[in-house]
Amino acid sequence: MPSALLIANASASQFTGGLYREVVAALKAGFDLDTEWPVSAKETGITTLAAVERGIDVVFAMGGDGVAHHVANALVGSTTALGLIPSGTTNVLSRILGIPQKPVAAARAATEYSPLPTDMVRVGAHTDFGDIVRYATFSLGVGFDADVVEVAEARPFAKSRFGGVHYATTAVTRLLSNWRTEYPNLRIDCDGDRFDAVVALTQVHNPYTYFGRVPLHLTANPPEGIATLAANNLGVIKAAEIFGRAALRRQHREATGTRLWSDYRELVIDAEPKTPFQADGELLGYATRLSMRAVEDAIFILRPDEISVPKN
């Protein structure tokens, strides 16, 4: 029987003691299971690294995309697989991978899954606190997108209570009050192609939006690798067009002040002044320079064989 560690985030929106006990019972049917309740992102990473050193086969993240992000970053490059038990507000990664959204159902399904290699995006950033490296499992945002995350996360009760509606209203509020008149402060260089922008959005797989049950597509067809969409302004009409084309799966038009890159080697962003950036809905800080690239088979995840676009 494979060994496993369940890392639970007791502050996740769907978490209850009874649900936790049901998940534990379901996982014990297929795994030699230990459990831990880290109280911070740092402790989650330390606990995960210790499990890797002990040779644990699977580390399960029970919570939302935040705990999954921190566990995944500690697993990069190891043979220990990530398991997902969605019990948070949005659960974007598990939706993308086709994992059941009910925690007990996800735990039962995990006993039937195999650990499959899965791509991630590596981002290196120069911040006030030094250079950092993080990995994104499904999305990376620079500028406006990260600002929305920062403001939304500052109201955890609203996030827990209203979920995608909270992110949507926060995005609209920030757009109308701050970002619709912003001038480009990002100089983007993608394999020699340069573009000035106020926002850059990167998808790792076919993304699932925070803004309700509407999947967004940066490209009309799934790209071979990662894709990044940038815009040089976020006026109300421009923002509505970008969102509409992403929701309707239509190709973005560069003539309207957007630029789309896919399957590239490296994308570098210089920011003046420094800009917020986020991965998987986790604000990572403010940076003056960022570089990102795809990392194939960066992590093993217990999941179905195919990664598909989520259904409405």
Short description:
The protein has 312 residues and is α+β, with helices and mostly antiparallel strands.
| Number of helical stretches of at least 4 residues | 9
Largest sheet: 10 strands, antiparallel
**Rg from alpha-carbon coordinates:** 19 Å
Helix and strand element order: EHEHEHEHHEEEHHHEEEEHEEE
End-to-end span in angstroms? 36 Å
Query: Which stretches are poorly predicted, pLDDT < 50 over at least 5 residues?
Result: none
The number of strands is: 14
What is the molecular shape?
A: globular
Q: What's the CATH topology label of the largest domain?
A: Tumour Suppressor Smad4
CATH class (first level) name of the largest domain: Mainly Beta
Structural classification: alpha+beta
Average the pLDDT over all residues and give the rounded result.
88
> What is the strand content?
25-35%
Which range best describes the helical content: under 10%, 10-25%, 25-40%, 40-55%, 55-70% or over 70%?
25-40%
CATH architecture of the largest domain: Sandwich
Total individual domains: 2
